[in-house]
């Protein structure tokens, strides 16, 4: 007897294949009626949503894939380490795939993942990869997104919510006396870049302050764009800079040092991600911290549930501000020289 396919489920439910994929991947972007019809059709046909379309197998490989945009980014490297450890604790090996910021290489790795018969995939998606990601869904391979999400994909995600941390950062800089606060954004095609910039705009609006487009530098999550963006903002009179990514924060640090500016005195700087290196910079960097450990741990837990055929909801974890000496309120006051002891 022929095994049912995702197309059979779509035909039985009277919906599109894309709608079936979204429902079976836990998306909330479907109507209750469509969701009920798809789940009933899958149950009636005996369709297993976590089985590979190319073969329904009873044995698992015991391997998951982790696909990151750029392993040179210290945030992604640390997140991959957390995922690997959490997977190993569940008895799963990890296949690490580095797209090297290339859509072509991302697509090639998706092809490798499809051939390797992995049990599931945890990935940080890139905006140009819709078609490659759709191919994994069509194969029935369980997928979860980490750090970023893609609208309309139907794939569950676990990401940080930038609102609290960015709001605290803007509040902090305003309390330090700044009014010309520049921002280095990530790419707007990325959910992380877009949402962090939107959080900055909301934080400014909370104080009834307009966003001066002269103080917005568009970046691409690369160190070089942090260098260029910081230079542009300094030239335009920014007294404080918020860099919305770890690599761009490093670039902004370099520009300030190259120009001979005393960070935390001549200009204040807030970065993103509480990486160990940011406690060792000169001065230590005030940052918006997103919970890498929780994103990785909960991402693996979410993927395990997908591999078991469950449909977990997406999650957003809060961010927070950590104040260090790169902003004036975090700099320890200078110690006054001791008064000379009067001679007897």
From TrEMBL:
<dbReference type="InterPro" id="IPR010982">
    <property type="entry name" value="Lambda_DNA-bd_dom_sf"/>
</dbReference>
<protein>
    <submittedName>
        <fullName>Degradation activator</fullName>
    </submittedName>
</protein>
<dbReference type="InterPro" id="IPR028082">
    <property type="entry name" value="Peripla_BP_I"/>
</dbReference>
<keyword id="KW-0238">DNA-binding</keyword>
<dbReference type="Pfam" id="PF00356">
    <property type="entry name" value="LacI"/>
</dbReference>
<dbReference type="GO" id="GO:0000976">
    <property type="term" value="F:transcription cis-regulatory region binding"/>
</dbReference>
<dbReference type="Pfam" id="PF13377">
    <property type="entry name" value="Peripla_BP_3"/>
</dbReference>
<dbReference type="InterPro" id="IPR046335">
    <property type="entry name" value="LacI/GalR-like_sensor"/>
</dbReference>
<keyword id="KW-0804">Transcription</keyword>
<dbReference type="InterPro" id="IPR000843">
    <property type="entry name" value="HTH_LacI"/>
</dbReference>
<dbReference type="GO" id="GO:0003700">
    <property type="term" value="F:DNA-binding transcription factor activity"/>
</dbReference>
<keyword id="KW-0805">Transcription regulation</keyword>
<keyword id="KW-0678">Repressor</keyword>
């Amino acid at each position: 007897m022929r095994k049912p396919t995702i197309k059979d489920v779509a035909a039985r439910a009277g919906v599109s294949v894309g709608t079936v994929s979204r429902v079976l991947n836990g998306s909330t972007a479907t109507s209750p009626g469509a969701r009920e019809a798809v789940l009933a059709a899958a149950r009636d046909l005996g369709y297993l949503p976590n089985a590979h379309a190319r073969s329904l197998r009873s044995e698992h490989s015991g391997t998951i894939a982790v696909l990151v945009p750029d392993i040179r980014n210290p945030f992604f490297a640390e997140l991959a380490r957390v995922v690997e450890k959490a997977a190993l604790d569940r008895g799963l090996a990890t296949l690490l795939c580095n797209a090297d910021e290339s859509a072509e290489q991302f697509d090639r790795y998706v092809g490798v993942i499809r051939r390797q018969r992995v049990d599931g995939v945890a990935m940080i998606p890139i905006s140009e990869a819709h078609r490659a990601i759709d191919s994994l869904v069509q194969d029935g391979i369980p997928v979860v997104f980490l750090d970023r999400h893609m609208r309309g994909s139907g794939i569950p995600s676990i990401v940080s919510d930038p609102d609290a941390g960015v709001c605290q950062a803007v509040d902090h800089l305003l309390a330090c006396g700044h009014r010309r606060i520049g921002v280095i954004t990530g790419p707007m095609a990325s959910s992380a870049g877009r949402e962090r910039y939107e959080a900055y705009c909301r934080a400014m609006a909370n104080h009834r302050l307009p966003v001066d487009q002269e103080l917005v530098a568009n970046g691409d999550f690369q160190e070089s764009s942090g260098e260029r963006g910081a230079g542009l903002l300094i030239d335009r009179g920014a007294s404080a800079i918020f860099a919305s990514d770890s690599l761009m924060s490093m670039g902004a640090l370099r520009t300030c040092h190259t120009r001979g500016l005393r960070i935390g005195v001549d200009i204040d700087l807030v970065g993103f991600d509480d990486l160990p290196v940011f406690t060792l910079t000169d001065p230590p960097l005030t940052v918006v911290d997103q919970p890498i450990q929780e994103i990785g741990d909960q991402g693996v837990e979410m993927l395990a549930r997908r591999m078991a055929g469950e449909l977990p909801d997406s999650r957003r974890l809060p961010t927070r501000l950590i104040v260090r000496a790169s902003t004036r309120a975090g700099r320890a006051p200078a110690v006054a020289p001791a008064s000379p002891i009067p001679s007897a």
